[in-house]
Amino acid sequence: MNPLQLFLAFLLVASVTVSATHAQEVQGDGLAGGKKIAMCIGCHGILGFHASFPEVYKVPKISGQGAKYLSAALTAYKRGERKHPTMRGITDALTAQDIADLAAYYSSNGVNFNLAPLAPAPTGSAKAMELVTKGGCITCHGDSFSKPMDPTYPKIAGQHPDYLYAALKAYKTTDKELIGRSHPIMGGIAKQFSNDELRELANYVGSLPGDLKTIPQSWLR
């Protein structure tokens, strides 16, 4: 394990984030969450749907994502730690129970719990693997990029590459009112890379087999 990976592991274990603590306070109910998705399905329930701010990219696949990560992410939007006008407006109206219920719903939506865990990710290009090593990505997201070492961290294998690229760039942005993400670990990692390198990383991770899906409502299919 290189010094960066050791540093990241130390930070992750030694400092429990406010969002993670918050995500653990409320028990989610997936059945209740399924009745609260009206504001979600217009973007996350349409295959290939694109966001247009701050650039054009496919909205993330969230079915099959970890519940505690989803809770932490929604809480970060609500608190302004993640800056996005649409998501901020939606989460402003959500209670802690709503967030936990939505997270419980999407973490189980379309999931086959009998499947074996994903195998370690196949090797990518020499450049991609160099960047993965430099960023210590496996340390936090697991060798399949679908089994993060902390449940408030996301599964990222198979996520839309253009979304991953936009998200990674957002961690580099700290001086804009409507754009950016505040995270002490990801901010430090993303700032090591040029945007071209972040795109290379995003394309590799997005090409991997993963658990994440977009599942349309029956009336949207």
Coarse structural class:
mainly alpha
Domain count, please report it: 1
Low-confidence stretches: 13-23
SSE string, helix = H, strand = E?
HHHHEEHEHHHHHEHH
Protein architecture, described:
- By secondary structure, the chain is mainly alpha-helical.
- It has a single domain (18-111, 118-215), classed as Cytochrome Bc1 Complex, Chain D, domain 2 (Orthogonal Bundle).
- The protein is 49% helix and 4% strand.
- The chain contains 12 helices and 4 strands; from the N terminus they run H-H-H-H-E-E-H-E-H-H-H-H-H-E-H-H.
- It has helices spanning 3-14, 18-25, 30-33, 38-44, 67-79, 85-92, 96-108, 126-135, 137-141, 161-170, 184-190, 195-206, and strands spanning 50-51, 57-58, 82-83, 180-181.
- Strands 1-2 form a two-stranded antiparallel ribbon. A two-stranded antiparallel sheet has the order 3-4.
- A hairpin with a 5-residue loop joins strand 1 (50-51) and strand 2.
- Helix 8 crosses helix 12.
- The longest helix has 13 residues, at 67-79.
- The chain is globular, with a radius of gyration of 17 Å.
- It starts with a helix and ends in a 15-residue tail after the last helix.
